[in-house]
Write a structure and sequence with these properties.
single chain, alpha+beta, about 325 residues, seven-stranded antiparallel β-sheet, Glutamine Phosphoribosylpyrophosphate, subunit 1, domain 1
Length: about 325
């Protein structure tokens, strides 16, 4: 689980990006980084450790770009390090990418790219993505506005696994592309600006109107417009959803850490989850499960797959089973 943020507008992007990362740091804190377009060139600044470390990087205060992407990492492929942190760029330094998810076939893609002459510098699965985009981009000899989009779509078609992606390109200094599959991503619509994030609360202070992408949908963003495309790059229409709640749920709200906050939220979470299933006589029914008594009698093992607070809940259940035995 990682957190990603994006901004395209007329304000200084770096401040907005870092602010968004701070709100998303519960999704990962091994490393952090931002990439902006500075005078038609890509700038990448990143480091190991917490988001606050970005403030100490030489030159970060001099960034003036108004388009950028950002990432806070929970390491999966590759140890926590500056080299493995996001954003990642391709060999030609044309594309910059941040990614939340896991690319399951990255070894095959890595081998393919190396055979095509690319050099990969990190241990991550993500680094194959910008280089794969560049591979398809250079094969496309057209010069229309969708060349960038076509390259991203072809690269995504080769990816197996899950991803939420934000991509910027130095050849398209006024645009950004975002897409997703099985990983969260939302787009916040503003006036002359647009925001992107893994979670709504990270950018809720900037806008209340959001677009929600489905799997394999692509958004081609400019400052004043967003064009949406399906998996075949056919234009589609999408409408915004207005969010009325506040960002408190993404903050510690006075608790020492997020885990403690989640523990104290369990009664509310349980009520909201099963409250509608409780009848007046105290029975709890889930009609959609369609389990019979015979089905239940055949179950002899339960697997609990989880992380974070949910992992600890699973371990407690496991310990209880041992004591029962």
């Amino acid at each position: 689980m990682c957190g990603i943020v994006g901004y395209i507008g007329n304000k200084k992007a770096s401040d907005i990006l870092i602010n968004g990362l701070i709100r998303l740091e519960y999704r990962g804190y091994d490393s952090a980084g931002i990439s902006t377009i500075e005078k038609n060139d890509l700038s990448v600044m990143k480091d190991k450790g917490r988001v606050k470390n970005l403030y100490n990087l030489d030159g970060i205060d001099n960034l003036s770009g108004t388009i950028g992407i950002a990432h806070t990492r929970w390491a999966t492929h590759g140890k926590p390090s500056k080299e493995n942190s996001h954003p990642h760029i391709d060999n030609s330094k044309t594309f910059s990418v941040v990614h939340n998810g896991i690319i399951e076939n990255y070894n095959e893609l890595r081998k393919f790219l190396i055979e095509k002459g690319y050099t990969l510098y990190s241990q991550t699965d993500t680094e194959v993505i910008p280089n794969l985009i560049h591979y398809y981009y250079k094969q496309d000899k057209s010069s229309d506005s969708l060349r960038f989009l076509r390259a991203v779509k072809k690269a995504c078609s080769d990816l197996k696994g899950s991803f939420a992606l934000e991509i910027i390109c130095k050849d398209y200094p006024d645009n950004m592309i975002v897409t997703r599959k099985d990983s969260p991503l939302v787009i916040g619509k503003g006036e002359g600006e647009n925001y992107i994030s893994s979670d709504i609360p990270a950018i809720l202070s900037f806008t209340r109107n959001f677009y929600l992408l489905n799997d394999f949908e692509f958004a081609f963003l400019s400052r004043n417009n967003i064009e949406f495309y399906d998996s075949n790059l056919k234009p589609i229409a999408k409408s915004t959803q207005s969010i009325e709640w506040n960002a408190t749920s993404s903050e510690k709200d006075g608790y020492e850490d997020f885990m403690l906050k989640e523990i104290y939220e369990q009664p509310t979470a349980i009520r909201e989850t099963i409250g509608s299933k409780l009848s007046e006589d105290g029975k709890c029914e889930f009609e959609e499960l369609n389990f019979t008594k015979k089905d239940l009698s055949c179950i002899n093992r339960i697997y609990i797959v989880a992380c974070g607070t949910a992992m600890h809940a699973g371990l407690v259940r496991k310990d209880c089973d041992r004591k029962t035995l």
